[in-house]
Amino acid sequence: MGFMIPQASDSIQELSVEELRAKVGTGMEIVDAEEHMLLSMGPQHPSTHGVLRLLVELDGETVVNLAPDIGFLHTGIEKNMESKTYTKALVMTDRMDYLTPMTNNMVYIMAVEKLLGIEITPRAQTLRLILAELSRLASHLVWLGTSALDLAAMSVFLYCFREREYILDIFEMVSGQRMMVSYFRPGGLWRDVPDEFEPAVRKLLDFMPAKIADYEALLDQNPIFLERAKGVGVISGEQAVAWGLTGPSMRASGVDWDNRRDMPYGGYETYEFEVPVEHEGDVYARYRCRMREMRECLRLIRQGLDRLKPGPVNIDDHKIVPPPRAELGRSMEAVIHHFKLWTAGFTAPEGYVYQVIESPRGEIGCYLRGNGTNKPARVHFRGPSYVNLASLPLLANNSFVADLVAVIGSIDIVLGEIDR
Amino acid sequence: MGIEEKLGNLGVVTYRLEDVVNWGRTNAMWPLLFGLACCAIEMMSTQAAHYDASRFGMELNRPSPRQSDLMIVAGRVSRKMAPVIRRLYDQMPYPKWVIAMGDCASCGGVFNNYAIVQGVDEIVPVDVYVAGCPPRPEALIDGIMTLHEKIRNDKITDWA
Fold it and tell me: Model confidence over A140-197: pLDDT tens digits?
C-alpha cells in the first residue's frame, strides 16, 4: 500500500432526496415532497455515538425518511479471526463491542467450547457470570451517561463514569487491562481472580443501589429530560419483533423475552432474577427498562458471589488449557503442551455451532465453523446493535430532528460492533 | 502570588513573545469532540470526573472542527473514514495539533488488514503518538503533557 492521501470526495456519498428514497424506504407514503431537504448527520457528530452517518430527509423540522450509512468503522474483524488460532482470535472480539468486552468474549468462547464439546468448572462458570453482569452494568452506565448527555443532562455523565471507573478497576484487578480484557479463555479463565476480588465486588454491591437511585433522581425529576423522552420514538411490540429489535429496546415495548431466562446458558437458569418489561415502547420506557436491569445485575452478582466456592477455574486438559507456569520447570510434558499451545494452538473438529447469549444491547450470536485445523474457518457474529439500528427509520419517523438524537441514544448502539 | 509579584511598581512585564504565546496555546486547548472506537471511551473517561482533563484547560470539547485546535484520533481509522478525517483536519484553523491515540491510530495495531489505515499519519501529520490498546487515561494525559512540552519549545521563526 503506497503513501496515498485520500481525497475528500472519494467515498462520501452525495445523494439527492430521490436517490435516498430509492435506496431505502420505511414503506410510508410520502406526499408533497417538493420542499423536502436532505440532511447529512455525521459521521462526525456528537450524538451519533461513534461514526454513524445518517441521511435524513426533512420536511421542515420533521423527519420523513432516513437511512443509516454505516461502515465508517469497518475493521475486518471476522476475516481477521480466520487467520488466527482459536485462542488468539479472542482478542478481536474485545474490540467489537467495546463497551462490554466480557460479553463478546463469552459468546465466542462458549461457541468454541461447544465446538470442542467441553464443560467448564463450576467456579469458572460463576466467575464468568459475575463478570458478564459487571460488564453489563458498566455498559449501561456508559449508555446512561452518554444518552443523558445528548439530552443536555451533563452531570449524569460525570456520575456514571465515576462508578464505571470502579468497575474498570475490578476488571483491571482480574485481567490486567481496563477494557480489552480477553479474560475468558477456552476451558475456563485466564487465571483465578485475586483475593481482593470478592471484597471489591461486595463494596460495589453496597454502594451501587444508592448511586442508581441518584441517577434516577437526576433524570426522573428533570422536566427537560422527561419532556424529551416520553412519547418519543414509539415502537409497538409487534413492530419490535418484526424489525428484529432485541434486548432492553425490545422489552421496553412489552415483549417479555430475555435469553438469560428463556434460552438459558452459563448457569443463568439456576439464578433468581426478574426480566424488566415496560409497555410504552418510547425512549422513556427504554430508559426505565435499563435502569431496572441494572438493579437486576446487582442481584445476580450478589447471588453469584454467595455461591462462589474455591476450586479450579480451568479444566484439567492441557491440550486446551496451558499448564501452570510452575509445572514447566518440572515436567517435560508440560513444556511440550505449553510450546504446542502457544505456537500452534489446539485443533477443533469439523462442524459448525451457533451460540446465542444476551448482551447488554440484545441478542448476540456467534456462528463458528471449524474445519479440523487450529484456526476457525468462519466466524460470524449476529450483532444486536446492527439489527437494532435497522429499526431507526421506523423509530424516528415523523419525529423532530432534536428527537432523533434522543432516539439514537435510546437504542444504545455501538458502532464498533455494527461495522465490525 | 502570580503575575503581580513580577510587576513591581512598574506595571510592565517583560517576557519573550514566544513564551507568552506558547503558554497561552498550551493552557487552553480545545480538542475536537470526535471519537472513533474503543479509545474514544477511554478519552471520555479522561474527561470525566475521575481523571478530569479540565486540569489542563481542555474540558471543553468542540464538536465543530472550526473551533478546535487539537484533534485526538481515538481509535482505528478505516479506509472509509480516512477522507472524513482529512476533511476535518483541513477544516481546523491554525495552529493545530494531532494526537494519535492508541495503537490502531498510531500504526494499525492488531488490525493489519484490508480495512484499516496503518496509522493515521498516512493522512494527517501527527505530533504525539500514545501507545496502548486502548491507552489508559493516564497515558493519554501523558501524551497531552508531551504535546504541551513540544509546544512550549516552539520557536517564533517556526510559526506558520
Answer: 999 998 888 888 788 888 899 999 999 999 999 999 888 889 899 998 899 889 999 9
The pLDDT confidence band at residue A37, using thresholds 50, 70 and 90, is confident
Sign of CA dihedral A49, A54, A58, A60: positive
Instruction: Give alpha helix (H) positions in A307-350.
Output: 332-343
pLDDT at B60: 75
Grid coordinates representing A269?
Answer: 437458569
Residues of B at the A interface (Cβ-Cβ below 8 Å)?
Answer: 33-38, 40-42, 44-45, 48-50, 63, 65, 75-76, 78-84, 86-88, 90, 110-111, 113-116, 118, 122-123, 133-134, 136
Q: Give yes or no for residue A73 having a pLDDT over 90.
A: no
End-to-end CA distance of chain B: give it in Å, rounded: 34
Cα B91 off chain centre by: 15
Q: Do the beta carbons of residue A133 and residue A268 sit within 8 Å?
A: no
Rounded Cα distance between A93 and A108, Å, is 7
Cα gap A413→A394, rounded to integer Å: 16
Among A137, A115, A116, CA closest to A205: A137
Closest CA to A56 of A416, A417, A402: A402
Q: Where are the domains of chain A?
A: 93-315
Q: Classify A188 as helix, strand or coil.
A: strand
Which cell numbers in the block locate residue A40? 447529512
CB-CB neighbors (< 8 A) of A10 in chain B: 83
For A54, phi then psi, to 5°, come to -115, 130
Q: Average pLDDT of A210-229?
A: 89
Return the HEC string of A246-287: CCHHHHCCCCCCCHHHHCCCCCHHHCCCCCCCCCCCCHHHHH
DSSP character at residue A257: -
Please report the domains of chain B, with CATH numbers, ordered by start residue. Answer: 31-153 (3.40.50.12280)
| Residues of chain B under the 70 pLDDT cut | 1-11, 159-160
Residue (of A92, A130, A141, A86) closest to A110 by Cα position: A86
Closest CA to A190 of A169, A176, A211: A176
Chain A residues touching residue B77 (CB < 8 angstroms)? none
Taking alpha carbons only, the member of B108, B101, B72 closest to residue B88 is B72
Q: Is A370 on the interface with B (CB under 8 A)?
A: no
- Per CATH, the homologous superfamily of domain A93-315 is Cytochrome-c3 Hydrogenase, chain B (1.10.645.10)
B38 to A44: CB separation less than 8 angstroms, yes or no = no
Residues paired with residue B128 on neighbouring β-strands, in sequence order: B99
- The residue with cell 462458549 is A110
Q: What share of chain B is helix, strand, coil (3-state, %, to 5)?
A: 45, 10, 45
pLDDT at residue number A4: 45
Of the listed ranges A18-32, A137-151, A295-309, the one predicted with least confidence: A18-32
Torsion of CA A51, A55, A58, A62, to 10 degrees: -40
8 A C-beta contact, residue B32 and residue B69:
no
More confident residue, A2 or A397: A397
pLDDT in tens, A348-407: 999 999 999 999 998 999 999 999 899 999 999 998 999 998 888 888 888 888 888 888
